[in-house]
Structure formats: C-alpha cells, structure tokens
Design brief:
- There is one protein chain.
- This protein is α/β, with parallel strands linked by helices.
- It has a single domain, classed as Vaccinia Virus protein VP39 (Rossmann fold, 3-Layer(aba) Sandwich), CATH 3.40.50.
- Helix content is about 35%, strand content about 30%.
- It has seven helices and nine strands.
- Strand 2, helix 5 and strand 3 form a beta-alpha-beta unit.
- The longest helix has 14 residues.
Length: about 200
C-alpha cells in the first residue's frame, strides 16, 4: 500500500518536498482563485501548500492517507488534517478550488476518470483544479516502488476531452526544482470546471 511507503519514509519525503520551488504555480493559482476562497489540499503530504495558502488568507481543508504525513502536516499547519484518499472524496459543491500537487498520480489509471468526476462534483461552479503529474506518456514504477499514473500534454488533453468536465486554463512543463531531481519533468495543469 502506498501509505506504508510514506509512513516508513516520511522524513525523507517531507524534507524533499519542502525544498521544492512552487512560486510560479502559486502565482498562477492565486490569479484564478482570490484570497478568502475555500480550498481543499488533497494528498497534502507535509502541509507545505496548505500552510502557504493559509498564510495568504484562504480557508483551507486538507487530507492525506498516510498517518505520518497527517501527523506532520497537522502540527506544521495547525489544521485538523483528515485521513482519506481521493477515492473517498464525496463533497458536493463545497470548494472554490482544489489543489492536488503530486498526489493524483497515486490514483490508479482505471480509477482516474471516476476520481476526476468526484473532484468536479466537489467543486463549486467554475471551480479551479490544480493538478501535477510526472510528465511522461506512460505510467511507471519509481525507485520507491510506487506505481505512478502519468500524463504529458497530449495524453492529459485527450483524457480531459473525453471526460468533458473541465476546461484547460493552462498546461505547463517544468524540470523538478528539488535537489538531485532535476532530471525529472513535471506537468502542471490549471483546470476550470465547465459548469
């Protein structure tokens, strides 16, 4: 189970993710979602992004499936981080925006369309979804043994077109900013719920 990998290696993951530079992604998101909006940080990990948005005046809720990540993120942010997975999301029109940084890639490909459907249901009309994936044409298993669902611009565009729930605001590619990870490339998607 993916949670066990995070529970066992929590400190390593936390230190790695806290070093990532998300400045450009934050600014793009803030241009679409004004401060004061209600935000869900899904698969929040260390709580890095939750804390940033709390400090910017957003109302933030967060969840993660890993007990160790929940413990750290709760202490780091002061939030009561929920224990759940994307597959458990059942909110209806509750959020102005959903932030999914390096978390949706843990959803197995057969479950991706139902998960995006749940995300759309949880967003208010014209709500914003930020999602990031490893920029690859095919899914892969990483060095920690995690099977990661991946997209590139073409495959994500095709997936979203078939789904019909989101308009693409922007798709950007960037090399990983973390130390010793610069050979990895990420795809950042800003999406707007159609209705």
């Amino acid at each position: 189970m993916i949670e066990a990998i995070y529970d066992t290696n929590a400190r390593e993951f936390i230190e790695s993710w806290l070093s990532a530079d998300m400045h450009d992604q934050y600014k793009a998101f803030e241009a679409l979602v004004p401060a004061g909006s209600k935000l869900l940080d899904g698969g929040c990990g260390s709580g890095r992004d939750s804390l940033y948005f709390l400090q910017k005046g957003y109302t933030v809720e967060a969840f993660d499936p890993s007990d160790e990540m929940i413990k750290y993120a709760s202490e780091f942010t002061g939030l009561k981080v929920k224990k759940m997975k994307w597959e458990d999301l059942d909110a209806k029109e509750a959020y102005d925006a959903i932030w999914a940084s390096a978390s949706l890639y843990h959803v197995a490909r057969p479950d991706m369309a139902p998960t995006f459907t749940r995300i759309a249901a949880a967003l208010k009309s014209k709500g914003i979804l930020f999602a990031s994936f490893r920029d690859k044409e095919n899914d892969f298993t990483d060095s920690e043994g995690r099977v990661l669902t991946s997209f590139n611009k073409d495959t994500l565009t095709a997936f979203l077109s078939t789904l019909g729930l989101f308009d693409i605001v922007s798709l950007t590619e960037r090399k990983d900013s973390r130390k010793n990870k610069q050979d990895e490339v990420w795809l950042f998607a800003m999406l707007r719920k159609k209705l």
